[in-house]
């Protein structure tokens, strides 16, 4: 009869439950990997929460102001939402610009913009006369200035309007009917004095030329007369120095100025104040 042999004891090893625990951890890891692969990450929300955590835990800010005591806030109350995660737009005010070198915002004046629009309309209507050098159109603040050169307008020492210039003024009047605003017609001369029977001074000559232009535009151009007033400046407002013939030719001109609402209101105010300051003389009883 065979004798039973005694098997040696196996060496000490890990407990049996460790294998089950390891399997469980592996399954949990796979489960969380699956959750992570199905999740969506909102970058803006992450940055917003990270900023709130910085404030909540009292992280030192860039200004390093030691007088401010770090204060904690409730992140959950501020950022928690039970809804399905969707891309979140952070409330920010941004300025879009094409030139990052500008330090200040460009603020446009509506009155100036309106004057530029009027200038474009008049240039389009009078482009032939501008191209021929008879007219020059520009803006100053909210005013539009049509500058009539002496070339082809008035003969020397005369305020008579020739037939060719008559057509130009009629066309200017038609163009001015398309824009709004009060109109000032201003006459200018050079500094060479004039002394004739008809024009004893440059003041009379500049006033006569301005009156002739205003009359023609209101009569043939059908501009409402109430819109127009005339001014005479003689040689007191030169564009160029009068020491050269070219400069004197530039100074002999008639300007048609279309006022904006701001200048028109100021002009009306000055006229009212001028009327109220006049004292009416009273007759004394005999």
UniProtKB/TrEMBL annotation:
Keywords, in A-Z order: Cell membrane, Cell projection, Cilium, Flagellum, Membrane, Transmembrane, Transmembrane helix
OmpA-like domain location: 141-262
Localization (cell): Cell membrane
Residue stretches spanning the membrane: 17-38
Predominant location category: membrane
Family under the similarity heading: Belongs to the MotB family.
Superkingdom of this protein's organism: Bacteria
Pfam family, one: OmpA
Topological category with respect to the lipid bilayer: Single-pass membrane protein
Protein name: Flagellar motor protein
One GO cellular component term noted in the UniProt record for this chain: plasma membrane
């Amino acid at each position: 009869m065979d004798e039973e042999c005694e098997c040696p004891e196996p060496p000490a090893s890990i407990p049996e439950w460790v294998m089950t625990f390891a399997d469980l951890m592996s399954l949990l890891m796979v489960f969380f990997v699956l959750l992570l692969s199905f999740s969506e990450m909102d970058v803006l929300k992450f940055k917003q929460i990270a900023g709130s955590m910085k404030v909540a835990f009292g992280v030192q800010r860039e200004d390093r102001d030691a007088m401010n005591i770090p204060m904690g806030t409730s992140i959950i109350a501020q950022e928690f939402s039970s809804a399905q995660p969707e891309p979140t737009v952070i409330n920010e005010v941004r300025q879009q610009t094409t030139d990052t070198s500008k330090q200040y915002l460009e603020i446009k004046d509506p009155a100036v913009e309106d004057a530029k629009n009027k200038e474009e309309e008049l240039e389009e209507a009078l482009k032939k006369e501008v191209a021929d050098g008879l007219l020059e159109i520009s803006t100053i603040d909210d005013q539009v200035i049509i500058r009539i050169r002496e070339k082809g307008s008035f003969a020397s020492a005369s305020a008579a309007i020739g037939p060719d210039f008559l057509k130009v003024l009629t066309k200017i009047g038609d163009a001015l009917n398309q824009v709004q605003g009060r109109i000032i017609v201003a006459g200018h001369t050079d500094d060479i004095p004039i002394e004739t029977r008809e024009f004893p001074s440059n003041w009379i000559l500049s006033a006569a030329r301005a009156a002739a232009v205003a009359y023609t535009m209101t009569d043939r151009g059908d501009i409402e007369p109430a819109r127009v007033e005339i001014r005479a400046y003689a040689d007191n407002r030169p564009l160029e120095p009068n020491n050269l013939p070219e400069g004197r030719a530039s100074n002999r001109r008639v300007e048609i100025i279309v006022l904006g609402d701001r200048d028109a209101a100021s002009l009306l105010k000055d006229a009212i104040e001028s009327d109220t300051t006049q004292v009416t003389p009273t007759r004394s009883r005999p």
